[in-house]
Every structure is written in structure tokens, then in C-alpha cells.
Amino acid sequence: MMSKLFPAIAGLGLVLMAPAFASVPEHRQPTALGRPVPPPMLRSVTVSLPQDFDQDYPKGEYVDAVNANCRACHSTSMVLMQPPLSAEEWHKEVRKMIDVYKAPIPEDQVEAITRYLASLSKGGA
Amino acid sequence: MADFNPALSRRNLLAGAAAGGFGIMSSPLLAQPMVDLGLPGKPSRRPLTRAFPQKGEMILQRMRPPLLETPMEVFDKHILTPNDQFYVRWHWANIPESVDASSFRLTVRGHVDRTVELTLHDLLHGFEPIEYVAVNQCSGNSRGLFVPSVPGAEWGHGAMGNARWTGVRLRDVLGQAGVKAGAVDVRFGGLDEALVAEAPKFRKSLSVDHARDGEVMIAYAMNGEAMPLLNGFPLRLIVPGWYSTYWVKMLCDIEVLPGKDDNFWMAKAYQVPTTPFGDVPAGTSDYAKEPINKMVPRSLITNLAEGQKVTAGAPLMLSGIAMGGDCGVAKVEISTDGGKSWQLAALGEDLGPYSFRRFTHRLALPAGKGRITCRCTNTRGVSQPLGMNWNPGGYMRAGVETVTVMAGGKA
């Protein structure tokens, strides 16, 4: 269903959805305000969101495992702005990424990733 | 998915690295202004950014998916938060960068008499419009200030905003589809998708009674204009008095369910203790839980920064914002003695029960360190607690906030 609803790329073609609000009939006035609400012009919108897939984690032992597995879904800042966490807490985070958010992380990388993150929390990396 | 924009990405890449404290600015031209959110025991500085479409200057928490925080000065200047500085919060980075206004459809389906597909034109012209002002606040607003710290988006106080929303009643739209007897929940989804097919798409639900209370709105305008794409263009669910997690952005799918919604975002994420203010002793993880729901009262002084110098003995005008949570603001009080005594602040214009309310108060401080605390009591008689509430999810921070200033001789 989503593919049907997902809008085609519209470019910047301006599609006017609403005529001027003078045409809002009496019965559509909101009771609370007692004045007509002008429908806004809903035009097609195209934007470009900034990306940062290429941003590396700070250098350190096992950084390759973290670069390979921890930046597909979110910026590195999601990880780097966290409070210092223990190895056990970081392990829980990594498991959550795999078990809940379905991060395709090879099991044999979990240990290395956890070590990197724990040492980051100790001020190293 | 998204197009890669090298210019933006290079600039922000460096800013992001600097925020982590690991990058070295190679050129002063690339230096970006930073703010310190005063977050205890964790990285506290964040870059300011203008790199996001339809957005002015914002505090960059995370570029992808965007977490953009509203700077405190914005709340001092405006009681209605301007659209271009209204905070932004997404869970998955699969956000469409294009929305075609003519082919967009809002579907109502599930436990209904007939599936309905509505165009934007249908919504703008086929239903009675309604409008009200309401605060939209992230469940985790101010999480960065939690002591002890908890993992998550480490926000300062700016994961909230107040806007005038215009749209149609969810009740009326559900009515067109005809909710069948036995309906329990109504689930909402947007155009955004999870990055991994098996991962949980972001979806939230309300009980069918709440969905049909006549207040919950499908908004097409924010402060009189189409909303910025990052705030949910073209449609956003408005659930006044409830935390923003229910205010589904880019709303395109409404599904009436014959049973309780047990999807991850309702049953596992966004759980709070059932205690008042979701408060449990720090470190507790074993408690009765429920999905986060109604907001609680809060107030913040907006015109004084932590550590600011003021003149001792001279009149000092305080200004701030208060919210009642799920009802209006009854009063805001100020204390300069750690909560032993309180003085009533003056309240500004009342824009409705779900809006921010301005408060102002004049006081004079003796020389030395001055601690100024504000406390909101809502129209249900609920006051902000004097001790800070805590829970492991970092939700619902609402204890009284204190600003410390230095009162000295005339400069």
C-alpha cells in the first residue's frame, strides 16, 4: 500500500490545492473561534536533506567495526553524544540495535564494537 | 533514497566532528557557532546549523535522521514558535524528500465500514475546519539534564514548541469511514519508513474514544501556513495535551483496530512508570509501566542564562513560559529561597488551555549567588514537584527548574 501512496517525485511543479479562503462556506467556520479559517495553499514540496554517511567515528581500537556497523541508520552523533556508559550498558545498546531495530551486524563483531564504545566512554577510543 | 549533497555534508561533517570534541577545525571559515546546553556529565556542546530545508537556525542534535532543537531565545521572543525554528524529531532516516500535493492520499482502513482515501483537497474542503493553539513537546524533552544520565536523544529544553494548528477533526474523518462496533485502538502511520524492512515502522495509536473526542485534529496548517516538511508536511496528527510521540508526522495511514495495538512503538518503547510524573527512584528499572500519555505542568525562565551576571539590588525583570500539560495554567510562582517562600508571577495572554503562557515577574536580588526557581500549577491543581522526577527512559522531566545568576555591584 505504501508504494501506491508514496508520492512520485514531483519536482518543483506547483500544484495549487486550495482556492482563496473567501470561498469557505459559513457552516465550516469553527465554533471555537467564530471566524473562517483560511485553508493554506498546499503546494507540492521537494527538499534536500543534509547527509553524513561518510562521517567516521573517532580513531581507536576496533573503530573499523563501528564504522562498518553503526552509521547506516543514524549519524555518529547519536552515539557520540551519549553519556558515558559501562561496557554492559553499551552491550545492551548494541543488542537493541540488532534485536529491535534489525541492524544487520555480524555476531562476531559485537564484542569489538562494545569494546570500542566502552573505551570511548572512558575518554579514550 | 535521499540524494547526497556534498556541500552540505562536508560542512556538517566538520561541525559534527567538532561537537564530539574529536575534530580539529582546519579552517576558521568552516567554524560553526556552538551552544552549550549545560548537560551534566556528558557531551554538552552542540553546533548551531542552518543546513536544513525550511528551517532557520537550529541546534544540531543529530543530522540523520534529523533531531533539531529550538534555541531558548526563541521561546523568550515568541509565544507561538515560528515554523522555521520549531524543533524536529524523526526516528528513521527514510523520510521522503518530495511530497506531491495532488497524488497524496490519506487512507482510513481496518475495522471500518468502508476504506476511504482522501485527497488534500477533500480534507481542506470536505470537512469543518477547526483551529487551536497547542504545545507539542517531545516525551524526552530535557533528557540531557537527567541525573543520573540515561541514554537516548540528549536534548536540552528545546524539544518543544507551541503553534496554532488548523485542520479537521479526526472524529469527522473516522466518521466518513464508519468505525465498526468493537473497535479498540486507532493506529497512525506516516510516509516515513524504517530503513530495514523487518524493523518496526514508526506507528502510534490512540484509544478509539480518544480518537473520537472531537479535539484530536488532522492538521494541514501550522501558524497559518503549510507546515515545513520536517514538521510533517502535508498532514500531522495533533493530540493536544499529550506528548508529541502521538503527533504522527506526514500522516497518510489511519487504521482502526479491533484490538489493542501491540506494535513496538506502543507496547515496548515510550513506556513510563504509572506513578505521578512517571517518577521512580534513580536507578529503578522494575516498576508498573504504561505508554506515555498526558503532559504535566512545566515552566522555564527564558530571559536569563545559567551563570548570568545581574546587578544586585536593581530591579530584575524575569520572563518565561509555562504550560499546564493537559489543561491550562492556573498560576506561576517564583522563589529565590529554594522553595521556602513563593511570589505570584503575572500571566500573559491566554491562548487556550493547551498553549504556552507567558509569565513575568519583577524582583531584586541581594549581592551574591541568586537561585531563581519557577513553579507552574495547572487548572487541575497539579503543581510541578520541587524534587526532580526521574525514570530510566528519560521521559516527562517536569520538576521545578532553577536558574543561578550572579548578583554583583554596578558594572
Keywords:
heterodimer, A: 125 residues, elongated, disordered N terminus, B: mainly beta, Immunoglobulin-like, 2 domains, five-stranded antiparallel β-sheet, five-stranded mixed β-sheet, 6 helices, 26 strands
User: How many angstroms separate the termini of chain B?
Assistant: 56 Å
Q: Work out the oligomeric state of the chains in this entry.
A: heterodimer
Average pLDDT score of chain B: 92
Task: Give unreliable regions of chain A as ranges.
Answer: 1-35
CATH classification, class level of the largest domain in chain B: Alpha Beta
Q: Could you provide a short overview of the structure?
A:
The complex is a heterodimer of chains A (125) and B (411). Chain A has 125 residues and is mainly α. Chain A has five helices and one strand.
What does this structure look like?
The complex is a heterodimer of chains A (125) and B (411). Helix content of chain A is 32%, strand content 2%. Chain A has 125 residues and is mainly alpha-helical. In chain A, α4 (87-99) packs across α5. Mean pLDDT of chain A is 76; it is low at 1-35. Chain B is mostly beta strands and 411 residues long. Chain B has 2 domains: 1-269, Sulfite Oxidase, Chain A, domain 2; 298-408, Immunoglobulin-like (Sandwich), CATH 2.60.40.650. In chain B, 10% of the residues lie in helices and 33% in strands. Chain B has helices at 6-20, 72-77, 120-125, 170-177, 208-211, 264-267; strands at residues 34-36, 45-49, 58-62, 67-69, 88-89, 98-99, 106-110, 116-118, 129-137, 160-169, 185-190, 203-207, 217-222, 236-238, 251-257, 271-273, 289-291, 298-301, 309-311, 315-323, 329-335, 343-344, 346-347, 357-364, 368-378, 401-408. In chain B, the strands form 6 sheets. Chain B has a 5-stranded antiparallel β-sheet, with helices on one face. Mean pLDDT of chain B is 92; it is low at 1-29. At the A-B interface, β1 and α3 of A face α1, β3, β6, α3 and β9 of B.
